[in-house]
């Protein structure tokens, strides 16, 4: 029953054929493909998506977690139209006040952020974070964790989703390129670490300490597998001792695990934080923030005497180069600020967490009643459905789950009006209602009945 999407998606199939003639594979990101064809969307409203055939879906993709206020929230629409009306333009191309307003907000919310720079995506944010760490330490290598995603570029397209027969020992993984076209250089200069294994991680870091500029990690792998608190504590301690910059990639956890991200929940302060997704209120954005001393390396004069000396006094190669036509886009920052303001209202985040918890609990109960082995794994407003009872602590543990059954269920859910990318996690928004939750649980029940036939 995983086979085809139903005849109710004819127009999607037709539109996909057209796309395939002009776009490789018909998709603008490989992960957006769903066999036999993606569902082509036309409209969104609150917690719902509507496809070109007029089918309605309760959306749990939420643009990979970005749309924490759901689709078309009025505060975002109002903020961007007010901003453009008052500014009289979409973007200035010069410094403007919202850049500082947002930076002050991020500094207030994130313990690890003392200064801020903007980018246009999460990808660019982690790239800038890594370059900043390399510039600051003068060391050439990066350590990342197996199974962790930091964006689609060479340096971090290593061991994101490696085949087990190429990935080496669990406690000392190999660096495996994730894509064709990734130069060997990055395979050789990236150290891969086992997530939630402090002892092995410490050993590898000690071995490579003189070459390692930074360790980057998702505090919650894939948005749903939490770092263990003791692991986080140990990682902070050892990186500090060894002079390795600790980068929290909070592109997904930022504003979702808490308004101050994972660092606020864990009580661990990273040296650099990358942000994206929710920060842009549904528009492309990224940012990095970190310790003043580290961040100042990208000031035009290296921070020596910025107001009087100016850029001319500094050797070009001493400056960390950071640029971007659209960095700090005022319309985007207006959308992001409106989003954050909404999330800051009393009770909003807690209601979001309560609804997520309710959905998880009801799904766990349902699967138990149907005798299907299952657990939900996650923290905050994102979780995943994992069809195994084995504990899930890292990338390799996911291999124990029944992916085939999960896929069959997900395909049925699509036909039943629940939008979940097959095998993907569930993101919740503040506008997902109790009724949405009840309908989602009903859809799961129908799906379980169908796949068990
Ligand atoms: N880091 C993490 C943790 C992410 O989840 C993502 C996006 N899924 C990125 C970086 C890359 O962000 P973007 O897609 O905006 O480039």
TrEMBL record:
Pathway in which this enzyme or protein is active: Porphyrin-containing compound metabolism; protoporphyrin-IX biosynthesis; 5-aminolevulinate from L-glutamyl-tRNA(Glu): step 2/2
Domain of life: Bacteria
Annotated InterPro entries: Aminotrans_3 (IPR005814), Aminotrans_3_PPA_site (IPR049704), PyrdxlP-dep_Trfase (IPR015424), PyrdxlP-dep_Trfase_major (IPR015421), PyrdxlP-dep_Trfase_small (IPR015422)
Molecular function terms from GO: glutamate-1-semialdehyde 2,1-aminomutase activity; pyridoxal phosphate binding; transaminase activity
Cofactor(s) the record lists: pyridoxal 5'-phosphate
Keyword Cytoplasm belongs to the record: yes
Enzyme Commission identifier(s): 5.4.3.8
GO BP of this protein: porphyrin-containing compound biosynthetic process
Catalysis: reaction(s): (S)-4-amino-5-oxopentanoate = 5-aminolevulinate
One of the Pfam families matching this protein, by short name: Aminotran_3
Family membership: Belongs to the class-III pyridoxal-phosphate-dependent aminotransferase family. HemL subfamily.
Annotated protein name in UniProt: glutamate-1-semialdehyde 2,1-aminomutase
Taxonomic source organism: Aneurinibacillus migulanus (Bacillus migulanus)
